[in-house]
Amino acid sequence: MRRLGSVQQKIACVFLTEVKEEESRKRDYQPFQVVATETVNPIALEANIDCALATEKLDGTCCYVTLYKGQPYLWARLDRKPNKQAEKRFKKYQHMHRSCKGFSWNIEDFKTVPEPWIPAHKVKHQNGHPVPDEHGHIPGWVPVEKDNKQYCWHSSVVDYEVGTAVVLRPSADDKEVLEIVAAPLADLMEQTLELIGTNVNGNPYGLGSKKQPVHFLVSHGSVRIRNPPPVDFQQLCAWFQESPEGRVEGIVWHCDNGTLIKIHRHHLGLRWPDGETSLSEKPAVVHVDGTVDEYNNSKDLFASLSALNGQCFSRLQDVRFDL
DSSP string of 16-55? Predict the structure, then answer.
């Protein structure tokens, strides 16, 4: 089976991009937007993207599973960013030179991060210190501790005592059906995943409710696109607007050499979300068969899903506990 890439760094767009001086469709108050040209990115061509595996780009927040305190742990994405003075200096340099190449950073230019913080894979180091990317950020991770209110929704999908996580994945029996499982964290080691749900990114998938929030972890690359369009600007635009399978935020291609390439609707000037999503419309089944004793004192999400064990739903967004 093909080894899927891990999302540790920014992913390149499948097309070369340009900056337009108009209000961003993706970020509020951003006075510019990055849009795709019709020229395929040389990085994608070098990675032989036509033979790559096309998967759904999910709209959530990136997570990582690796060891902490001697056991598999969920880690949240936390990029180390420059302080206000360094950010001001950086922007001034960019404006003067129309580029960020050649700008010099000092280690004291960056905000402090929690002590267990680790830099993401492939972050370059100089004199023993991590070097920021072209945007002035140092991608990294921080462990999700159960009492940290900042990461309460991350915490809701893991049970460290039992050693499991709530995972949404295609069923082994039918890839068009999603299954919700309590997967061993040990089985997710060194994977990156997307946390999606009620309180993440405006909940484009319509999961849960305010009274009974629902969140899942989805391994990157696990939701395949069955009939992906060719890597062609016009055909991709048409697919996103006309195909039922195109009701996704974007595509991430996993290339044979490990390179990840992406496209999302904002690159093409298309809205997201735009009506019902492909993921939320898929049928789902709950396979959380923990014993009553195992989850009796556990998180609400585990206990609620355990009570629904074996139930099938015609749509993922119909999985609710407050009916």
Answer: EEEEESS--SSSTT-S-EEEEEEEEPHHHHHTTGGGSEEE
List, for residues 155-209, the tens digit of each pLDDT value: 999 999 999 999 999 999 898 999 999 999 999 999 999 999 999 999 999 999 9
Tokens of 79: 């990029």
Confirm if 321 and 308 have CB atoms less than 8 A apart: yes
End-to-end CA distance of the chain: 40
Please give the single-letter amino acid code of residue 153: W
pLDDT tens-digit readout, 258-279: 999 999 999 999 999 999 999 9
Strands (E), 2-146: 12-13, 15-20, 33-40, 53-57, 61-68, 71-77, 118-119, 125-126, 129-130, 140-143
Residues with Cβ within 8 Å of 220's Cβ and at least 6 positions away in sequence, in order, are 4, 5, 6, 7, 55, 58, 191, 192, 193, 194, 252
Q: Cα-Cα-Cα-Cα dihedral of 42, 44, 45, 46, to 10°?
A: 90
Q: Is the peptide bond before 273 cis (omega within 30 degrees of 0)?
A: yes
Residue 7 corresponds to which tokens in the numbers above? Answer: 């999302």
- Residue ranges of domains in the chain: 12-58+222-268, 80-138
Q: By C-alpha distance, which of 259, 183, 228 is closest to 4?
A: 259
Kind plus residue range of the DSSP H or E element containing 86: helix 84-97
Our measurement of the distance from residue 36's CA atom to the centroid of its chain's CA atoms, rounded to an integer in Å, reads: 21
Confidence (pTM) = 0.89
